Amino acid sequence: MNTAKLAVMLVLVLIVGVFAGSLGTKIYYRHELERSGADRQGPEERVNRIVGRLTADLKLDAGQQAEARKIVAATEARATAVRTSYQPELKRVFDRGFEQIGEKLNAGQKTELQKKQEKLSARFDAMYFKSLLAARSGMPDMGTTARLLGLNASQREKMGAILQDLNKREDLVIEKYQKMERPDLTAADRDMRELRSASMKDLSGVLTRDQLERFKSDIAAW
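User: That's the sequence. What structure does it adopt?
Assistant: Structure tokens below.
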């Protein structure tokens, strides 16, 4: 189940849970909470599957497969970045749903609900940070980026240094929030956006306008 479908279904089930009492809550537990991590396929597996289908359907030769793999990997990284960007908002939706369900429960039921919420929250947090790293790792390497953007030697060196520094700063942010018992994904997302905005500003001083727009539209996974 993809994240968008999961979000819609969870919201609907949460609403049902509010009005259906313990029955709705039980359904929510059984069919959504315990299945929220069902889609375990990693980015590399998805890329292999897609390239495999393209190869079979279009009869790609070895060279075409190699080029297709690069494009599919970059596309997967960008898609992962998009999904990651709305995970903090989804978590707020889930938390509000739990709060609404809790208003309909007795003390014992609230305790059990809290356990379920903490379990789902931990999964959601782990998925968020994993997605951040997956999106970044799927970006083209510096050599490919330089070729796609037509960078000269000086631009390549400066851009490489900016992106390397960004990766280090992002790692520090991820490490900071992963150490928290209950990380604030909204705050983490804000910190990541600020870092990337600053890096994009630095890149604007290195790349031409056309190169920068190409980087934003075709390469950057953020």
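The chain is about 80% helix and 0% strand.
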